Amino acid sequence: MTTKDKAKELVDKYYIICQEFTEEIQCSIQAKQCALIAVEEILKYNKNQLIHWMPCENDLCGCYDYWNEVKHEIEKL
Q1: Residue 46: how many other CB atoms lie within 10 Å
Q2: Residue 56 phi/psi, 5° resolution?
């Protein structure tokens, strides 16, 4: 999965959760914030392991660069 697709997938998952309780515009903002928090936790918790885990040659990459790019894609949404 591309980083752009992963970013959208994460934001969409959080959007579904908050849409029952919040207006659409606010829900979009909150979903993006939640996705960013999730990715930040992945980056923070696994920083050393992710850098050396595997090369970013495929869509299933778990490396630090992949998740950092997902973070940037979320910020662009």
Answers
A1: 15
A2: -85, 60
- Cα→Cα distances 63→4, 27, 48, 76, Å: 15, 29, 10, 21
Residue 35 CB contacts under 8 Å (≥ 6 apart), including other chains: 7, 10, 11, 13, 14, 74
Distance CA(47)–CA(71), nearest Å, equals: 14
Structure tokens at 76: 């662009």
64 pLDDT band, cuts 50/70/90, is confident
Burial degree of 77 (CB within 10 A; 0-12, 13-18, 19+)? middle
Q: Which pair of structure tokens corresponds to residue 48? A: 């050393």
How far is the C-alpha of 62 from the C-alpha of 70, rounded, in Å?
11
**Which token pair is 18?**
């908050």
